[in-house]
Amino acid sequence: MPFIQVSEIKGVFSPEQKAETASSVQAPINETKLNAFVGKMLGDVGAVASAVNVIVGDRLGLYRALLDGGPQTPQQLAERTGTYERNIREWLANQAASGYVEFDPASGQFNLPAEHAAIFVDENSPVNMCGLFDTLQTLFIDEPVLTESFRSGRGVGWDQHNTALFAATNRFFTPSYKAHLLAEWLPALTGVEEKLRTGARVADVGAGYGTSTQLMAQAFPNSQFAGFDYHAGSVEAAKRSAQAAGLSSRVHFDVASATDFPGGPYDFITCFDCIHDMGDPVGALEHIRRSLTSDGTFMMVEPAAKDRLEDNLNPVGRIFYGISSFICTPASLAQEGAYGLGAQAGVARLTDVLGKAGFEKIRVAAQTPFHLVFEAR
User: Fold this and answer.
1) Of 108, 117, 174, 279, which one's alpha carbon is 20 to 30 angstroms from that of 339?
2) What would the CATH number be for the domain defined by 6-120?
3) CATH 3.10.580.10 fits 130-376, yes or no
4) CB 370 within 8 A of CB 300
5) Rounded-to-integer distance, Cα 309 and Cα 317, Å
6) Within the chain, which residue ranges are assigned CATH 1.10.10.10?
């Protein structure tokens, strides 16, 4: 079968097939529109097939080897990585067809551009997406239980997911936190940096693996930090990480929910990408407000979104709605309250829940293409 460009797709159906299909869907078929949509779907299916190859390339260090070694043939890359040449040849062909690597027919070599290495290799790059691919992989694993939750409406708790999700999610968010938390988000808050430098009591609620907590602790050695999460496995991982980083004397992690974490009052409380996952976000935010000192500050980091659905129908919204369908919304529906904010709540809805919790001074202090950062007092 000759190679077909998506732009060349036409004549998908014979006249008889088109008439039969139109009858089955009870609508006339516009073949031009159909062909365009088939082309789009081929691109989407190709992206899914390529996603598995991205995970393999990440696991085997193939991207790193391409970056470090420069342009290479399949044989050279296989020798460099200790892998089997025939598999590598097919993997490289997929990556070239996807536009992820470049291919030079004259030399038979494949190359990873520096710009693409920011996606696949550099763990400190704010656009590294390997953690996102890892996260999406777990959704396929959990599909049966998630499908059932759509029928029942009972939701799926964070702790009910495949355990690979927890480390994958931490890897997904870490590049953004490293890039923006200390350089942009904290400086955008009124008076918070000065308190942290002098010495403040800080609670990071929904801390997960504790990456955000430890980034702040490393930058502000005069402050004390407490990280809370209801998932015991994540708390244990956070404790191990803090100990390895030499932070155990100033950073403590404990199992607790957002509605009952102890130890206040705190000068500064943070929540990173977790309020929308909660069954009772208003109740959680009320407890957070009561746990602050009279002049304390709450920082809430949430996925970036507009208030209207039609304004979120874009590539970023597509990713967040897709993840929210399988992780965020089911997690909320599995908890008491079942609020179901979702990962694309938007400024108006998030401001509303903060207001209902008793916060009076609320503003969006910073924003990235992927995050909204709220300051509330």
Assistant:
1) 174
2) 1.10.10.10
3) no
4) no
5) 9
6) 6-120
Q: What are the distances in angstroms from CA 281 to CA 106, 169, 210, 228? A: 59, 20, 21, 16
Residue type present at position 169:
T
Angle between helices 232-244 and 211-219 (to 10 degrees): 30
d(C-alpha 310, C-alpha 291), whole Å: 37
Spacing of C-alpha 371 from chain mean position: 10
CA distance 327 to 323: 6
Contact partners, residue 60, CB within 8 Å, separation at least 6: 81, 83
Q: Which residue has the tokens 């342009």?
A: 71
Got the DSSP string for 319-355?
HHHHHIIIIIHHHHHTSTT-----TT-HHHHHHHHHH
Degrees to nearest 5, angle at CA 276 with 274 and 282:
105
For residue range 325-358, list pLDDT tens digits in order: 999 999 999 999 989 999 999 999 999 999 999 9
* pLDDT tens by residue, 163-194: 999 999 999 999 999 999 999 999 999 999 99
Is 347 within 8 Å of 376 (Cβ atoms)?
no
